[in-house]
Specification:
This protein has 17 helices and twelve strands. By secondary structure, the chain is an alpha/beta fold. It is globular, with a radius of gyration of 21 Å. A seven-stranded mixed β-sheet has the order 9-8-7-6-10-11-12, sandwiched between helices. Helix content is 49%, strand content 15%. Bound molecules: NADPH dihydro-nicotinamide-adenine-dinucleotide phosphate.
Amino acid sequence: MISYLKMEKHVKNYVDDFMNRIIAKNPNEPEFHQAVREVVESLAPYILENPVLQKMKVLERIAEPERVIMFRVPWINDKGEVEINRGYRVQMNSAIGPYKGGIRFHSSVNLSILKFLAFEQTFKNSLTTLPMGGGKGGSDFNPKGKSDNEVMNFCQSFITELSRHIGSNIDVPAGDIGVGGREIGFMFGQYKRLRNEFTGTFTGKGIDWGGSLLRPEATGYGTSYFVQEMLATRNDTVEGKTVTISGSGNVAQYAAQKMTRLGAKVVTLSDSNGYIYDPDGLDEEKIEYVMELKNVFRGRIKEYADRYPSATYYEGQRPWHVKCDIAMPCATQNELDGDDAKALVANGCICVAEGANMPSTPEAIEVFLSHKLLYAPGKASNAGGVATSGLEMSQNSMRIAWSSEEVDAKLHAIMKNIHAACCEYGTEEDGYVNYVKGANIAGFIKVANAMLAQGIV
Ligand code: NDP
C-alpha cells in the first residue's frame, strides 16, 4: 500500500475509478470495500505497468465472487422452539485450486464480512504456494451460551444445505471465529452421513479421523515464525521481548504458547468484553489454564484475573495501550484503530504481526507504515493456518499422516517462503520492507497468471 496522498495522479485516478465501481456495485459492504481498497492501492502501479492485466480485467474479475450461496438454516433449540439463521458460502476464486477458507459463526456475520474474508483468502492461499483457491462462509448463528446439542442441531441443518455446494475437489471449508474442533466434527459427521463417503472435504478434523497434527496450533505458530523472520531482517530476535496479544481463542492461544516458548513475555489476552494484563507474563501453566477455560468450559477471559492475582482485568478495553515490543492482534477485524496504533508507536512497539484477518484499520496501517514499523498484514502472517489445512488435504489425498515434526518443518518453511516473497515484492528504495505491498503483489501474480492462462471465465 502506498500512502494514498503520495500517489501519482494517474495511479490515484485508477484507484478512485476502481473503488467507485466496487462501491456502486456492492453497496453497504464497508468491510469488503476496505479489503479491496487496500489491495487496489498496492497493485495499481503494477497493473498500470502491465496493460494486459488491465485489458483482461483480472483484478475486476478477482473482486467479483465466482459464486455466492445464501440459505436458510432452521433448527430447534433446547426449549423446542424454532430458530432461523442465515447461512452463506462465498466461492471467490478457483483459479489455482478448489475454494478453500474457513466458516465463521458469529452474530456479526453478514455478506460484507464474508466477501472481505474470501477476497483476502484468495491472496493468502496463493502466498502459501499450495494449490488452493479462495472462499469463506459462515452464519449469524452465535454459539456462545448454546448447549452442545443446540450447536449440533444448528451444524447439521447448516451442512444439510451447504453439502450440495462443497466437496474435496470443489470447496473445502475449515474453522474460523466460533468454529473449532467441536463444530467441524458436527459438520463433517453430517456431511459424511448425507454423502455416504469419507473424504477430506473439511480441514481441522480430529486427529483420529483425518485431521493433521499441528493444525490447531498452525495459525498462532505460523504468525510467531513470521515475527521471527521480520525481526531477523533487523538482526533482532523474539527472546526477551514483551508481547501484547488480543483475543483468547484458537489463534491467540497458540500465538501466546509459541511466543512464550521462543523466550518472549506475553502480557495480555482479551475477549470481546475486555482484556487481562499480567505483568509477570504467561507461562506454560497459565496458557494451559486459558486453553481449558476457553475450549472446555467456554468461560470468559476475566476469570484469568480471579485465578492469577498478578493480573488485572480491564472491562470494555483493548490491550493496545499496554507498553510492548511486539503486538499481535488475534481477535477480529478492525480491532486496532489509528489511536491504538499511535499509542503502540509512542510506547516503543517495533513490530505488529496480525494473527486475525484485517484487525488493523486503514488509519492504523498508515501509522505503522509511516513510522516504518515491521508490520505484517494477516494475509501474510496468519497464512500458516490455511497452509496447514493444505497439508491436511495432501495427507487425506495420500491417506497418510505426517508426524508433528514433519508438519512443523513444512509450516516453518512455508512461513519463511511467504516472508521472502513479501521482501522480494515489498522492499522499497530505502530498504524498508512494505509487507502490505509485498504480500498483495506476490499473492496476486500467481492468481493473475492462472486467470490469464484460463481465458475469460
Ligand atoms: P476463536 O473463535 O477461536 O476466537 C476469537 C477470539 O476473538 C475470541 O477471544 C473472541 O472473544 C474474540 N473476538 C471475536 N469477535 C470479537 C469482537 N467483535 N471484538 C473483540 N473480540 C472478539 O477464533 P480464531 O482464533 O480462530 O480467529 C481469530 C481471528 O483469526 C479471526 O480474525 C480469524 O478470521 C483469524 N484467522 C483464524 C484462523 C484459524 O486457523 N482459526 C486462520 C487465519 C486467520 P469472544 O469469546 O468474546 O467472542
